[in-house]
Amino acid sequence: MLYFAYGSNLNHFQMKRRCKDSIFIKKINLRDFRLTFRSKYRAADIEPKKNSFVPGGLFEISKSDEKKLDVYEDYPTLYKKYYFYYYGKKVMTYTMTKKSPFAYPTDRYLNIVKKGYRDCKLDKRTLLKALKN
Known about the structure:
28% helix
């Protein structure tokens, strides 16, 4: 199945450790969404926003990888699944169930996300804009 990562799972080392079958395909943009950080974990989330986009990584993952991600993302309590289509192919990602106010991420978490942006060759401007919330 196809999975869209936009937070710490962009980090190739972390993603491979968590999902051994995962294969990074390419970078893509999720249109009409924006990136933010929230919850007591101060983790990445996406929310609808017209004329905006979230850059991320498209990964091929196995069924067992999906189960591991479900555990990591605390599905269905903290995150729920969101599906969209990319060139006719169904893609899964996660979005938080409770849209709490913005919370600046920890340095440790942010460094993992920044490394993921480098791994996937994403433009950091979106990330910096999200942090200025």
